[in-house]
Amino acid sequence: MPETGIDQINEEATPAQTDVLSSHLLGGKKKQHLLGGKKKHDEDKNVETEEIQHLDKGADYLTTMLLQQGVKETKTKSKKTPPKLDELKKLFVQELIDSGYVKIGDKGRTILTDTGKEFLDNQTKNAAMKVELAKLKNLEYRKSLERQDKRNQKKRKKK
């Protein structure tokens, strides 16, 4: 019985109907048994590595061909570099200020506003409820395991 959908398609198709590209990438002609069934793929063989090596060879070939024809290799630079840690901190504080959760004091320090305090209180309550729920689920699970153990012990005693 085929293990994957591709194997099933390959088993149903005759050798003349197989996909040319996939048969080429997987190593040329497919070996067939006497009864026409496909030989099972070797478990130890890493197809991904072989495919990557095959594609790398093709890329190297194309690169050398283009270089021989005079096409110059160009290095592309990204237009925007990702922000550094200090920049990320500044962006985070700016978002808090824009949201109205904090404000800047006289000495340049951030001060929590009333809306910020309400938001943090709500977040704390939500987190506490999630922790309680997780504890209850864990307790329920442990009790179900205990019940299961008791049932198994009773079964062992009866034998």
3D structure, described in words:
By secondary structure, the chain is mainly alpha-helical. It has two domains: 5-68, no CATH class; 85-158. The protein contains five helices and two strands. It has a two-stranded antiparallel ribbon. A hairpin with a 5-residue loop joins β1 and β2 (110-112).
Strand order of the largest sheet: 1-2
The fraction of residues assigned to DSSP E strands is under 5%
The residue fraction in helices comes out at 55-70%
What ranges have pLDDT less than 50 throughout 5 or more consecutive residues?
13-25, 28-39
End-to-end gap:
40 Å
Largest sheet report: 2 strands, antiparallel
By secondary-structure content and strand pairing, the structural class works out as mainly alpha
Oligomerization category of the chains in this entry: single chain
Radius of gyration: 32 Å
Q: What is the helix tally?
A: 5
- Secondary-structure element order, N to C: HHHHEEH
Overall number of domains: 2
- What would you call the shape? flat
Mean of residue pLDDT values: 78
Q: What is the number of strand segments?
A: 2
